[in-house]
Write a structure and sequence with these properties.
single chain; alpha+beta; three-stranded antiparallel sheet; 5 helices; 50% helix
């Protein structure tokens, strides 16, 4: 809810039981919905996160923080192309926007390295 408060999710409770409940809301509304009735917080849950709309995910390179964090972690362990592909799949953010962000980060990192070696 904190990383993507507008991202919609469907909360399914007690799917294989008599008291099934299914509700879809933005992530920011989820904690209040569970707190409103103590019975809603009991049982087994499945949370299904809906994909981010492409336009909302990256308008003019404005990527969600969760997508940027995912990309940063993957870049430490994988080649750029693989890191971008996996970050796009996991976050729902557009691949091209993530790739451009990764290139900017890499260029900034190389520029910082060049400045350090010049000293």
């Amino acid at each position: 809810a904190e990383l993507a408060p507008q991202r919609r999710g469907t909360l399914c409770r007690e799917l294989s039981k008599q008291f099934v409940s299914i509700s879809t809301h933005p992530a920011a509304a989820r904690p209040a919905g569970l707190a409103a009735d103590s019975h809603r917080a009991r049982g087994e849950f499945v949370l299904v996160l809906h994909a981010l709309p492409a336009a909302a995910a990256a308008a003019d390179g404005d990527l969600p923080e969760a997508a940027l964090q995912t990309l940063a972690v993957l870049q430490r362990a994988l080649p750029l192309k693989q890191a971008v592909a996996l970050a796009a799949e996991l976050s729902g953010a557009p691949r091209n926007a993530l790739y451009q962000q990764a290139l900017r980060q890499r260029d900034a990192s190389h520029a910082a390295d060049d400045t350090d070696s010049a000293d």
